[in-house]
Amino acid sequence: MRISLLVLRTACLCLAFLGANAQAQTLRVATLEWAPYVGSDLPGNGLASRILNEALALNGDKAELVFLPWQRALNETREGRFDALMPAYLSPDRSQDFYTSMPLLDSQLGFFRRRDRALPINPRDLDTLRPYRIGVVRGYVNQERFDAADFLNKDVVSSDWQNLEKLLRGRIDLAVVDRYTGYQLLSQNAPALREQLEFVDPPLEVKPLYVLVPKKRAEGEALAASLDRGLRTLRRSGRLQQLIAEAHLESAMNTREVAAHPLAEQLPATSDQHGATLTPRTTTDLLSWQASLL
């Protein structure tokens, strides 16, 4: 009888193990070269990639990154050719085509200018940008009001580095680039010229970086929910802060508070189920940990 029970228990454990492995997935995730957040030559493919992999591993899954030009990555993921896309800004249009979870990280999006041409602009007043040629990247979602401002002179290119090169050559007046990506690209590609450009404060917008799961993917909603659970577990356990520290970023207490709803940062302030108002925090509160990248 004891032998029979032992055999039965062993069989059940084996079935459970096989079942868990049958559910484990290797997800094909479209991405781009976007240091310091993600890159094929960065340790662990960058901080965003390491966070994603650890969140997926909690469910036995893992990611296979495919590096592509951004517009192609976005289009092909939207069509369901990839399981997910990251790291990405979220917009009302994209929310029609993608599921998402809590953000991986935040970025500061804004303008670079030449130090020898300290243009008198105010990122919060788009009218101050009217006289200038502004470099933007094809397919990127920037700030909603800025993207809708047809009265601005926008010069479209294929990458952030193209924008910075044009700015260095004086072919444009401003370039819309993430603060830390801009300084990283300058340090890598033109270290002698790094001090010729500067980021204009305040940022145009503080933007969360998401993993987007296409709605055309079978069980896409379940994948987004599983990823959300994994990310929240990393945060509650302190592992998220540890990953940030291991990336040599400042892991102070002022990292962003995770919204109750993944779209909360993109929508007007609302009340949660307990009646508390959800409002965005200030730039200083959200991003103090990123200052060490400068």
TrEMBL record:
Q: Which Pfam families match?
A: SBP_bac_3
**Homology family:** Belongs to the bacterial solute-binding protein 3 family.
Top-level taxon in the UniProt lineage = Bacteria
Q: Outline the extent of the Solute-binding protein family 3/N-terminal domain.
A: 26-252
Which InterPro entries does the annotation name?
A: Solute-binding_3/MltF_N (IPR001638)
According to UniProt, the name of this protein is Transporter substrate-binding domain-containing protein
What keywords are annotated for this sequence in UniProt?
Signal
Identify the stretch annotated as signal peptide in this record.
1-24
Query: Does Transcription regulation appear among the keywords?
Result: no
